């Protein structure tokens, strides 16, 4: 009887332990990595400078809460490699760099690593041993263009959670469910060996001001004179295009006599209307020449 009670007690303890593991707090799929403008610019610059080799860097930031990771700054690491793996992180360089950054007021901790690799290697797992919420950010500076940055954030899935049949993340919202993974990412082990995190860009008021004024024209730009030779060449090209458009417009006037109203409605669908094009080109030539004359007169009077 005592033996049976011990067996029952052991099984109850096992069930309670399993329940406790299942009830443990899990990472949410709404977790978002907010990258500052400074960090993003440094990542793209460092990645493009390392082409065709794969390069690596470390990001500085803070874990705000269970749903937010702020990346404030990034610094390059003296490592490079191929598309399969990157050299091990230089601990001495990292320590010295962190000490120097603290002297400048950067006292944030290392939250993740930024690479140009497509596969997460064992070097990143070392960061996860220090902090389970560490993430790897992968940037492709070659495919990135103005207004569209090819970037993604990943975190490896713990093998023990899969062995216990647990989900690596819990779902409390629809954030992150709208991003459809590519076939390449699925082949490389997405949602099997690692999962993707949401990325957003955090800008301060000063950074927003700076980016808004980056290509802003000042009042002096209206007084800048274009090269006369270049202006004459553009005028000649515009006049030649006007002649071609005028011929097309004459053909359209001749067609209007032969075609019916229904045919005319669909005649220039998906094509350039000669009448509208002629008016737009004429207005453009007049505006440019008037502006050039006024600018030259203002400059001549100012010089006198």
Automatic annotation (TrEMBL):
GO terms for biological process: proteolysis. It comes from the Eukaryota. GO terms for molecular function: metal ion binding; metallopeptidase activity. Residues 33-160 form the MPN domain. SMART domains: JAB_MPN. SUPFAM superfamilies: JAB1/MPN domain. The keyword Metal-binding applies. InterPro entries: JAMM/MPN+_dom, JAMM_MPN+_peptidase_M67A, MPN, RPN11_C. Pfam families: JAB, RPN11_C. Keywords: Hydrolase, Metal-binding, Metalloprotease, Protease, Proteasome, Zinc. One of its GO terms (cellular component) is proteasome complex. This is MPN domain-containing protein.
């Amino acid at each position: 009887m005592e033996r049976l009670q011990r067996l029952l007690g052991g099984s109850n303890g096992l069930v309670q332990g399993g329940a406790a593991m299942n009830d443990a707090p899990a990472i949410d799929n709404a977790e978002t990595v907010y990258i500052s403008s400074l960090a993003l610019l440094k990542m793209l610059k460092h990645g493009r400078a390392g082409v065709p080799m794969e390069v690596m860097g470390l990001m500085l930031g803070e874990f705000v809460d269970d749903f937010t990771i702020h990346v404030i700054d990034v610094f390059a690491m003296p490592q490079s490699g191929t598309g399969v793996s990157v050299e091990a992180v230089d601990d001495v360089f990292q320590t010295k760099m962190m000490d120097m950054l603290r002297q400048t007021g950067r006292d944030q901790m290392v939250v993740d690593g930024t690479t140009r690799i497509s596969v997460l290697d064992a070097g990143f797992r070392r960061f996860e041993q220090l902090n389970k919420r560490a993430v790897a950010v992968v940037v492709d500076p070659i495919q990135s263009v103005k207004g569209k940055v090819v970037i993604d954030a990943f975190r490896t899935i713990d093998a023990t959670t899969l062995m216990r049949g647990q989900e690596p993340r819990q779902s409390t919202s629809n954030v992150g469910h709208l991003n459809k993974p590519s076939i390449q990412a699925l082949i490389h082990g997405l949602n099997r060996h690692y999962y993707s995190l949401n990325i957003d860009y955090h800008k301060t008021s000063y950074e927003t001001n700076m980016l808004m004024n980056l290509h802003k024209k000042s009042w002096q730009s209206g007084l800048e004179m274009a090269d006369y030779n270049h202006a004459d060449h553009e005028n000649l090209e515009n006049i030649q295009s006007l002649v071609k458009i005028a011929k097309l417009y004459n053909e359209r006037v001749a067609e209007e006599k032969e075609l019916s109203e229904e045919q005319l409605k669909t005649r220039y669908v998906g094509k350039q209307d000669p009448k509208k094009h002629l008016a737009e080109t004429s207005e453009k030539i007049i505006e440019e020449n008037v502006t050039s004359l006024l600018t030259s007169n203002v400059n001549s009077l100012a010089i006198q």
